[in-house]
Amino acid sequence: MDLVGGCRAFVSVSETGSFTAGAALARIPQPVASRRIAALERHFGERLFDRSTRRARLTPFGRDVLPSARRLVQLAEAMEHDAKRARLRPVRVAVPATCGVRELAGLAAEARALEVHLEFRAAGPGERAELVRTSEVRAALTAVPAEEAVWSVPLGVAAVDLGPSRVVHLETLRTGRSAGVRRRVWIQPEDDVPHVRDRVLRVRDAVGLSPAQVSVADSLTAAAAEVFASADLLLCSVAQAEELGLSWRPIGELGLARGFGVAAALAEDADRLRTTLHAAVGRCLGAGR
Predict the structure, then answer these.
(1) In whole angstroms, what is the distance from residue 127 CA to residue 31 CA?
(2) Model confidence at 178, in pLDDT bands (50, 70, 90)?
(3) Mean per-residue pLDDT for 7-31?
(4) Which of 19, 142, 153, 282 is 20 to 30 A from 80 (CA-CA)?
(5) Quick one: which of 104, 126, 98 has its CA closest to 263?
(6) Cα(256)–Cα(124) distance, integer angstroms
(7) Which residues pair with 58 in a beta bridge?
(8) Any idea where the HTH lysR-type domain is (predicted)?
(9) Separation of alpha carbons 169 and 41, rounded Å
(10) Cα(30)–Cα(12) distance, integer angstroms
(11) Secondary structure of residue 123 in the 3-state scheme
(12) DSSP strand E in the chain: where?
């Protein structure tokens, strides 16, 4: 039987002295209140109310068990309150610093419709999984090779002016002995991971570029500043190039992509990001552009 529901009806009727008023106080129909109290009486094997009068008067047994019933109802209400607060507690998620405010706000709004409140912490690719391990966040969008990824974001190079070419071959950055300033490719911190950085470095060496022509920047801002001030190139996604107002082209010598997976302390948090919120997370990462 529904012991809590029965006790709630019992307490409400005892406080009002009426089955009708007690049902209204418990926010249930009067027949439901009567059935619940009758079930409670069958459960205990004793009458709770003397029904020989017009008012709902407690029997001696009813008076004896009323304090315990009140405590049970109060405890159930406290539990419901605590459960509601727990549902509203934010789920902290570590995300790449490349995620835009508008896209993150859209993700948070979609999650809120599911009664999930997300908070975001921007962090580098090497830090995000560690934040989950140390319980500083409940979930993280982690950097993984594209072939293992839940979301994949194509990478290319961007510059102020790339001309009419449909792709950029890194070998075209090679200069002769008499050349002046050598154009560089800047790798931003989000792509300073082996499965991206090392592939670019192998192409650099294969086409004969100097080591300094592929560099890892301290920040995306620093890399973009170099690109705005010169003919240098930025390794980035289409979405980032659009945001910066740069022309973007794929790299001729290799197909390159950022890969993202999910690490989470609870499987349900990971599953929610992978499935229900998959499209919204993808927009934050720049996938599908």
Answers:
(1) 59
(2) very low
(3) 93
(4) 19
(5) 126
(6) 19
(7) 49
(8) 1-59
(9) 84
(10) 11
(11) coil
(12) 49-50, 57-58, 91-95, 118-122, 139-144, 151-159, 185-187, 214-216, 233-237, 247-249, 256-264
Tokens of 172: 């075209």
The backbone region for 161, taken as left when phi is positive above 0, alpha when psi lies in -120 to 50, beta otherwise, is beta
CB 254 within 8 A of CB 156: no
Q: Are 254 and 169 in contact (CB under 8 A)?
A: no
Average pLDDT over residues 179-188: 85
Residue bearing tokens 């419709």: 113
Q: Which residue has the tokens 């610093």?
A: 97
Neighbours of 86 (CB within 10 A): 8
For residue 109, what are the CA distances in angstroms to 99, 117, 270, 273, 283?
15, 8, 18, 13, 13
- Sign of torsion, CA 233 184 144 195? positive
| Cβ–Cβ < 8 Å for 107, 277 | yes
Q: Which residue has the tokens 């154009």?
A: 183
Structure tokens at 48: 């709770």
Assign 121 a pLDDT band (cuts: 50, 70, 90).
very high
